[in-house]
């Protein structure tokens, strides 16, 4: 049981990752010779086979039928609407779990085969460049993970939720599973009466039948596959209003509704606080999905962040700490969701910013100075760079532990880069940069180089040497304004429990 506020943090991803040794990226796919149907990827440095070249997805339509228990596959129909960016004789989708029953392309039956983590489709008529693709896949979606491959569906005490980051959406549905290809989503869930199904976005209809109910939800903004959320459970849905009428919607286990109510009231003030820092909330609604499950992390699924129930009910977690994680996931709606990473090496843009606002919130509301946290991070930064790589050139995931890219080098290490930048260019320029960043790249994806360029433009001077050291260097540069701060590459002493 945690004894001190700081020691409770290992339940979150950042510190869990700190326990992992340095990782070596192993690409097994590269060793196999290409055949007529072979796995493809768009060349992400950390996940080479994620995503597929040759098309751009505009919309997904997902339909799931829940059988009433979470250890059996759901039946599903996934329709992908895309535009070919080159002539296509074959189309690859990422899909790695579940059975494919049939595939249609533009209304005609298509041949398909499975290879690696790809579903390779041969349309009966080749698709010309610029042509429209409407791919319908009838398949199952299996919530039971084979050993060593977590992610995708999360089995809760009363149903299912989703945690697809970074590379697990294609364990749930066939897709172009990369955040650089965002699309609109319609999500439809049929479940036996007694269950409630909720997904990202706004409700678009409920249809009740004798034994089951079908809920439909639609996003009002494009979304990355990794941020899709579907909750099926014995849930209570609470609705209230946030700042300027922003609809807030929370989904909690029905039996925990009263215990969780005081926490849910905090969201509105947190949204107002973040809007005062970075500008308007970027989506159509927000809310918390709180589940009875052991995930070991919280996740910023778009418009509906996923949290473990025990974060709110375990008395050992201080109030400021719980609120800081709420603000962390809320910050991601701007940094990570509205502005997605263009590659997974840009992950520090997500986690560095979310850690930054989490830390700033705690400074302003709980009198826990950010400078103290940043000084501690500075002390560990060289070690984090040795074990995880520089913030913008992180080491790859460990084989079988793809979540291991979520290391401290991108969390407090990423926030430390932002702290150094604010020291370097001053608070007014830094605050202008933050607002400009989420405004300029809203509903899109962006790279680290985009951030560097915008920072230079905002500061009115070339910051490339600054970023070279802070984002790409093997050693932590001196901290502007704090020449006495020291960093060490030796492992920190173990946390006492
Ligand atoms: Zn995060």
Automatic annotation (TrEMBL):
Residues in the signal sequence: 1-37
Catalytic activity: Release of an N-terminal amino acid, Xaa-|-Yaa- from a peptide, amide or arylamide. Xaa is preferably Ala, but may be most amino acids including Pro (slow action). When a terminal hydrophobic residue is followed by a prolyl residue, the two may be released as an intact Xaa-Pro dipeptide
Pfam families: Peptidase_M1, Peptidase_M1_N
Region feature Disordered, mapped onto this chain: 475-497
Names of the cofactor(s): Zn(2+)
Keywords: Hydrolase, Metal-binding, Metalloprotease, Protease, Signal, Zinc
Keyword set includes Transit peptide: no
Domain Aminopeptidase N-like N-terminal per the UniProt entry, residue ranges: 165-225
SUPFAM superfamilies, per the entry: Leukotriene A4 hydrolase N-terminal domain, Metalloproteases ('zincins'), catalytic domain
Enzyme nomenclature, EC number: 3.4.11.2
Cross-referenced Gene3D superfamilies: Neutral Protease Domain 2, tricorn interacting facor f3 domain
InterPro entries hit by this protein: Aminopeptidase_N-like_N (IPR045357), Aminopeptidase_N-like_N_sf (IPR042097), Peptidase_M1 (IPR001930), Peptidase_M1_aminopeptidases (IPR050344), Peptidase_M1_dom (IPR014782), Peptidase_M4/M1_CTD_sf (IPR027268)
Chain coiled-coil ranges: none
Domain annotation Peptidase M1 membrane alanine aminopeptidase: ranges: 279-470
Top-tier EC class: hydrolase
Recorded family membership: Belongs to the peptidase M1 family.
PANTHER family named among the record's database cross-references: PROTEASE M1 ZINC METALLOPROTEASE
Protein name, per record: Aminopeptidase N
